[in-house]
Amino acid sequence: MTGYGGKLKEQLVKVGAENWGMKLMEKHYLDYFGKDQLVYLTGDATEDLIEIDKNTHYIIGGLVDHNRLKFATLNQAQSEGLRVIRLPISQHIALKSSTILSVNHVFELMLKVSNGDSWGDAVKSTIPERKREGHVGLREKTRQNKAKREEQKEDGDDDDEEDESGDEGEEGDENNEEEKIPVENNDVQTTEQVNEDKKIDIEKTSE
After folding, report:
1. pLDDT tens digits, residue range 170-204?
2. Structural domains in the chain?
3. 3-state secondary structure of 43
4. Model pLDDT for residues 18-51, shown as the tens digit of each residue
5. What is the C-alpha separation between 3 and 24, in angstroms, rounded?
6. Three-state DSSP class for 66?
7. N or C end of the chain: which has fewer CB within 10 A?
8. CB neighbours of 118 closer than 8 A, spacing ≥ 6?
9. DSSP annotation of 194
10. pTM flag (> 0.70)
11. How wide is the angle at C-alpha 47 spanned by C-alphas 46 and 51, nearest 5°?
């Protein structure tokens, strides 16, 4: 690590940087290496890194780069006249949005490929699922499940309203329909007609 001084050093000492097992150098990288030995890694480059050159020093500038600082590393490299290159991520997986990776992921990818892994294997085993296109995060899953439940609830309410309307119709028909009683000659008489016939029979008997 170069540029290890000032406020950067103060902050990194607090998190145990001196125990990370790497060489910490206070001066700028251009004070140690020639420009022809340096290549700046940035997701904003247009050239893919195909093969790692062991005689080249690759600069990971992610310590000061964030999504809100567009082209920060690219502008830095160009201002110093350095070659820029990007890791071949898009050749192996599709990222959800930004091609900006953490320092840890970039370092891990470079280390795996340096030790003999293919870029494809290194990328697939290093890039987390949440950064890949098609992956649905926990927050999005929660939103989708909530929307699905609300939709199912609305469908259920509509079905209940239809059922209630149907019941009322049947009940109304049932109440409005006169009770029909079959008689021996297979004609159908209403209750009122039957009662009237009984009344006549009783009067005849009385006479």
Report:
1. 444 444 444 444 444 444 444 455 455 545 454 44
2. 33-131 (3.40.1280.30)
3. coil
4. 998 889 999 999 999 999 999 999 888 999 999 9
5. 8
6. coil
7. C
8. none
9. H
10. no
11. 155
